[in-house]
Automatic annotation (TrEMBL):
<keyword id="KW-0350">Heme biosynthesis</keyword>
<dbReference type="InterPro" id="IPR013785">
    <property type="entry name" value="Aldolase_TIM"/>
</dbReference>
<comment type="pathway">
    <text>Porphyrin-containing compound metabolism; protoporphyrin-IX biosynthesis; coproporphyrinogen-III from 5-aminolevulinate: step 1/4.</text>
</comment>
<comment type="similarity">
    <text>Belongs to the ALAD family.</text>
</comment>
<keyword id="KW-0627">Porphyrin biosynthesis</keyword>
<dbReference type="Pfam" id="PF00490">
    <property type="entry name" value="ALAD"/>
</dbReference>
<protein>
    <recommendedName>
        <fullName>Delta-aminolevulinic acid dehydratase</fullName>
        <ecNumber>4.2.1.24</ecNumber>
    </recommendedName>
</protein>
<dbReference type="InterPro" id="IPR030656">
    <property type="entry name" value="ALAD_AS"/>
</dbReference>
<dbReference type="InterPro" id="IPR001731">
    <property type="entry name" value="ALAD"/>
</dbReference>
<keyword id="KW-0456">Lyase</keyword>
<comment type="subunit">
    <text>Homooctamer.</text>
</comment>
Amino acid sequence: MSNNLITPDFRFRRLRRTSALRELVRETHLRMSDFILPIFIEEGINAPVAIKSMPDVYRYPESQLAEIVTRAWSKGIRAVLLFGVSTHKDEVGSDTWAQDGLLARMIRTAKNAQPDMLVISDNCFCEYTTHGHCGVTHKNDVDNDATLVNLQRQVVVAAQAGVDMIAPSGMMDGMISAIRQALDEAGFTHIPVMSYSTKFASAFYGPFRDAVDSTFKGTRNTYQMDFANAREALSESMQDEAEGADILMVKPGTAYLDILAHIRANSSRPLAVYHVSGEYAMIKAGAAAGVIDEKSIVLETMIAFKRAGADLIITYYAEKLADWIN
Ligand code: PBG
């Protein structure tokens, strides 16, 4: 015992001494190929509409989609996720499976603009129904199996329009089996499905709903998951894997890192995470208030997603990340 000096058993700080050493032992990295950019296209507008709580995010007119896709490509983005906001709404969302409906037109426009861009369609009904629910309603609730039939129609039309990947977000039971069967029967055995497999009923969707879904006053609690349930969260994703989902997903992200890690430990499929509108808005608001540093917080959040087990990240920050990473 030498005059009260304590000697640590091991010195972790040896590998933290210089930035070269820290980079050498860094376990998690970000690449542009990790990111998927969501794009919102709204019918009936002629100029981009700003989303108030989401600075730098817009709903674009259809006439600007080609330009947006080309700009994203030139920045290094290689995958986009298309959302349509329809003015041709009806009780069932039939525009989603119209041969010349908004969904089909968006896919064709995006693929024409940049044939090598991976074009993914968000496959749901909520932006195409008068009531705003994610499917056919019956007695104030969504009729699961009737919705599946329409979902089959929708994904076949999307595939015919040239989509590269289908991404069903409606949280209907059996949706992956139904989609796989419909795609295969129509000759699209090669088109992968990225399931919104574990999607929670979340207040983090608030800004998106304010901007896009303002007529919707209900809840999605009978189809989206209770955020209190971790075992069920795993079960939902494992069920989608069993039904043939090629990629699984957790949505939202930041508050659900435990769920990501849990699914990662139980599945070998690629895993995506959706960094949603509320997560984006909170960072923007915090940065605008001068209480956090935007770039550092975003990079830390993205690394956290990958560390927790995500392979892919869907984020409104994809274009900004291109500036920051390159
Ligand atoms: C609905 C849908 C949601 C989002 C996109 N499409 C969730 C919801 O309203 O339940 C949220 C996207 C976001 O918040 O970034 N299928």
